[in-house]
Amino acid sequence: MKHAASFVAPPIAPSPETEGWKLLADSSSPLDWNGPEDRRFARFRDEDLERPIIDLLETTARRQPDKVAVLDGAAALTYGELWRGLSGLAETIAGRTRPGDAVGILLPACAMAPLAMLACLAAGRPFIVFDPHSPRDWLARVLEDARPALIIAGRDAPDGIEVPSAGIIALAALPQPAGPGWRPAALGVDDPACILFTSGSTGRPKGIVNSQRNLLQRAAQSINAAHINASDRFLTLASLGAIVGVRDVLTALLSGASIRLVDPQRAGAREMTSVIRKDAVTILFAFPALLRSLMAAAPEQAETVRLVRVGGDTLLWDDVDLIRARFGPKAQVQLIYAATEAPMMQWFVDDRFRGADARVPIGYPLPGNHLAIVDEHGGPVPPGEFGELVVESRYVSLGIWSGGRCRLQGVEHGAEPGARVFRTGDLVRQRPDGLLERAGRIDRQVKIRGSRVDLDGIEAILRGQPFIEDVGAVARRAGTHGAPIIVAYLCLRPGSPSGALDDIRAGLDAAPPAMRPARIHVVPEIPRLPSSKLDNQALQAMDEARAAEECAAATSTGSGDDDPVSRTVAQVWQEVLNTPVSGADDDFFESGGDSLQAIAFTLGVEQALGLELPVTLINEAPSFGSFCNALRDGRACRYTPLVLLKPGHALPPVFLIHGVGGNVTEMLPMARQMTYPGPVFGIQARGLAGNDPPHTRVEAMAADYLREIRSRQPNGPYYLCGYSFGGLVAFEIAKTLHSAGEDVGLVGLFDTLMSPLKWPLRSWLSILWRRAGRLLAGKLPNGKRQPATVKTTSVLRVSSSALLASAKYHPGFYPSTLTLFSPEDREPGVPTLENIWRKHARTLTTIPVPGAHATMLSGANAKIAAARLTAMLARMRGDQAGKA
C-alpha cells in the first residue's frame, strides 16, 4: 500500500515575508492516492497551464463536437454548439467593450452561464459572476464597486440595476456563431480572468481576482486526482458565483465530460436526487450541509455515482458513513480544502485515518504550493500544535477588484518569481501522518451554507440600522452536528420604540441570506474582554441559556410540562427553524419556515413520535398549538380538501387550487401576503393523506372541489385560481359554474400549460422531470437518516395521477375572461400562455409575475404576486359594484 505519510521538503529560499516559516511539504504520493488510480483518463499536462483556457476548450470541441457539454434540465448544448455560440457572443462582447474592461454575468444556473463565461475569455475580457439570488440592494453595491462595462443577463434589464455604459446583452437563446475568420482574443494566462465577490470585513463586497493560470491549476489538479474523463457526468451544486462553481465548470469541460447544472437555491433536495438518478451522474459536488439534505432525501442508492466531492465547510465522519450508505460502498469521497484566493489541500478520505475527532482532516498539501503554519508573530509553531495556515504560490489570487480594475492591495509577494502569499486565517495543525486538521479561524470569517461570511461585515450592517447602540455576532452550530448559523446580540439605544426589533429585521432583508442572523437577542450590554474584543464564550453561553429557557417554556404551552407531544414538536421545530417556540400561537411559516422546511419538520416529527403524518398537516394546522392538538386528537390522517391559508371576512373567499403534487404549501407564501379582506382557502388533492385514491380525471376533481366550494360559499361571485396543473381544475370549475348561471368573478391561471405532448420532446421530458422532482423535495434536521414512513409514494401517486389526468383533459371553451399570471422567466421551448389559452376563452388578461415557474410564488416574488392578485380582485370588485 502506498502510504501518504512520506514527505520531502520543497525547495524554497527564505524571503522577508517567509523568514522563519516552517514549511509543510507536499505529499510524496500522487494526487490520486487512495482514489481512482486505475481509471483511464487524459492527464492534464504541466505545459497546458501555459495555454489559454479557450484554446484548450477548442481542442476538445473539435474532437467531440456532438457530445453534450452542458445541460440544465431545460436545455442542452453539445461541444460544437457551445463553441459556435460562444464565438458569436465573444465577437459581440469584443465589439462593445475595450481591453481590460470586465463583463458582468447575471444568469441563473443554466446552460448559457458557462457559455457566457467562456465567451468573455474568448473576447479577452475578465468576467464577474453575480448571484441573481442576491437582494437588489446588495447587488447594487457589488455593481457599484465592480463597475462592469457590460452585463450579460437572461432578460433586457433586471429591476433596480443601473445599466452600464455598454448596455446589457439578453442571452435568452443560443447566439449565432461568429463570422468566418474569427479567432479568440489574446488573454494572457496571468492576466485577470475571473472576479468573484465575497463579503468583506466592512460589510461591503470584496472582489477577488483570479487569473487563467489559477483557474487552470484547480481544473488540472481536479482532473488528475479524480481521473475525470469524457464518460463522466458531473453535477455541481455550487453557485456559479463561487470559485467552486467556476472550477467545476472548467474541470468538466476541459476533460471532455458533461456538466449538469442545477440551482440549489431553487431546486429541492428530492429534485436534486432525482437528477442524480435520471441523468446517471458519476461525479457530484456539494457543500456538507446540502449533501446531508440530499442523503436524507434519497431513499435509494445512486449506483452511478463513483465520486462525491465535498468542500466549503467541515465534513464529519458521520457524513462519510451516510455518503457510502446512500451512494454505495464503491463511491469514493474526495475532500477539497480551498479558498477563493488559493487551492491548498485535498485527499480521498480513508477510514484507516479515522480518529477520535468527529471532523474529517482537511487533506494533504497540494503540489505547486508552499504551505506553512505560523504563530501570531509569524514564527513557526512546534510540531503538532495549531497555528495559522499560510500559502505561497503562483496560484494565489492576483488582488482585489475595485473601481473597475485589479488592485494589489494586501498582496504579499513570495520568494519565487510570480509567487504571492495568502494568509488564510485558518487555525490548522499537521498530524504525524501528514494530514492537516482545521480547528477554526483566527479572524471572524465563517462558512454559512457554503458562502463565506465575515462576522465583522454582519456587525457593520447591523450598526447601520437605527436604534442600535452596540452589536456582537457569533457563529454557532444548530444542534450537535448541525449547519452553522449566525446569532446576533443587540444593545438598543435608550428610548427605542417597542417595534425597533421588527424594523431592524426588515432592514436585514437587503443583505444576502447567508448574512442574516438566524437568532437575534436584545441584551442590556454586549459582553467584552478587557481588550474591548467580544467575549465569544460569554455570548455563546447567553445564547445556550436563552434557547434552553425558551424551549422549556414552549414545551409546556397549553398542555403541561410532562406532555410528550408538545415537548417533541418543540424540539423538532427548533432543530428545523433554528429558533425556539415561544407560545402556542407561533406560526411555522411566520417563524421563517418554507415548503422545504415544512417537509423536514413533518419528517422529523414522524421519526420522533413514530407516527405516519400527511404532508398537508402543517398547512391545516400551522401554529404550534394547533399542530400539537391535531396530533393529540387523531386528525393527522384525515383528508380535508379546504385549508384556510389566510383568514378574512365580509368579502367572498378566494380559492387557490394545488399544483401537480397536490399540496398547497407552495401557494402559502403568496396567500399570506395578500391584503385582500376576504378569506383565502387552499384546495389540496385527495390521496396525500389516509388511504383515499387520488383523482384520475380533471372533471371528477373539479366536481369534487366544487361541492366543497359551494358548501363554504353557496352563491357567487366566485374567485378561482390555480397554480400550474391546478389552473386546469379552476378552468373546469369555472365552466361548470358559468353553465349553471352562477357569477364567476375571477379565473386566474398561474403558469398553467396545456397540451404538453405537442411540445418538443426534449422540452416536455425535461420540464416534467424537473417539476415532478421538485415535489419530492425534503430533508431531515441535522442530517439525520430519513425515516421509513416518508410519504414519497403518496406524492408520486398524486403527481402521476394529475399528469395522466391532464393528458386526458379536453378543456373546451369558456365564454368569459381568463386572467393569466405569467412568469417573466419563461422556460426555453415552452409556448406562451396567450398562445395556449387564446382559443379556449373569449378574452384573456395577462399579468406578469417575477421569477420562473418554480419561483414565481416564493420568496420576494410571492409578495409581488400577492399584490398583483389583490389588485386584480379590487378591480373586479369595483366593476361589480359599478354594475350593481
Structure summary:
The chain has 884 residues and is an alpha/beta fold.
What is the average per-residue confidence, as pLDDT, rounded to a whole number? Answer: 81
The neighbouring-strand order within the major sheet is 5-4-13-12-14-15-16-17-18
**Rounded radius of gyration (Å):** 28 Å
Beta percentage is 15-25%
Alpha plus pi helix count? 23
Describe the structure.
With 884 residues, the chain is of the alpha/beta class. The chain is 32% helix and 21% strand. β26 and β27 form a beta hairpin. It is globular and about 85 Å long. Mean pLDDT is 81; it is low at 1-21, 557-561 and 769-791.
Keyphrases for this structure?
884 residues, 32% helix, globular
Layout of helices and strands:
Elements: E1 7-8, E2 23-24, E3 26-27, H1 53-63, E4 68-71, E5 76-78, H2 79-96, E6 103-106, H3 112-122, E7 127-129, H4 136-146, E8 150-153, E9 168-170, E10 192-199, E11 205-211, H5 212-226, E12 233-236, H6 243-254, E13 258-261, H7 269-278, E14 283-286, H8 288-297, E15 307-311, H9 317-327, E16 332-338, E17 343-348, E18 364-365, E19 370-374, E20 387-393, E21 399-402, E22 405-407, E23 412-413, E24 420-430, E25 436-441, E26 445-448, E27 451-454, H10 455-463, E28 468-477, E29 484-492, H11 500-507, E30 519-522, H12 536-555, H13 564-577, H14 595-609, H15 617-620, H16 624-632, E31 642-646, E32 654-657, H17 668-672, E33 680-683, H18 698-712, E34 718-723, H19 726-739, E35 744-750, H20 761-775, H21 792-808, E36 814-823, H22 833-837, E37 841-849, H23 859-883
Parallel strand pairs: 4-13, 6-7, 6-8, 7-10, 8-9, 12-13, 12-14, 14-15, 15-16, 29-30, 32-33, 32-34, 34-35, 35-36, 36-37
Antiparallel strand pairs: 1-3, 2-19, 4-5, 10-11, 11-21, 16-17, 17-18, 19-20, 20-24, 21-22, 23-24, 24-25, 26-27, 28-29, 31-33
